[in-house]
Design goal:
Elements: H1 4-40, H2 57-92
Helix pairs in contact: 1-2
């Protein structure tokens, strides 16, 4: 049976582990939110750095976010090229 003394000894350790874990998770989420806020303002130049663990959920989120930014950047470049080409064509007329 577990004694009250061992619970009181273990409780502060458990609280510390939970605090540090939640802090690390919130920090990761804040990085994603910050990047997505920049993307929403039109900044497609930044990406999330990925860790070494391919099975980590934050790496999966980061990879998907980076792929989204790349696709938007390529689409934006295509639109600008088409627009620049139509400007050149109209100035010759």
């Amino acid at each position: 049976m577990v004694s009250i003394g061992s619970i009181l000894l273990f409780a502060p350790f458990l609280v510390l582990v939970l605090f540090l874990t939640s802090r690390a998770l919130v920090s990761q989420l804040n990085r994603v939110v910050e990047l997505l806020s920049r993307v929403s303002e039109g900044d497609l130049t930044k990406k999330l750095s990925l860790g070494n663990n391919p099975n980590d959920e934050f790496n999966t989120l980061g990879k998907a976010t980076n792929q989204m930014i790349d696709k938007h950047r390529r689409a934006d470049e295509r639109v600008h090229r088409r627009h620049a080409g139509s400007d050149r064509g109209s100035s010759r007329a």
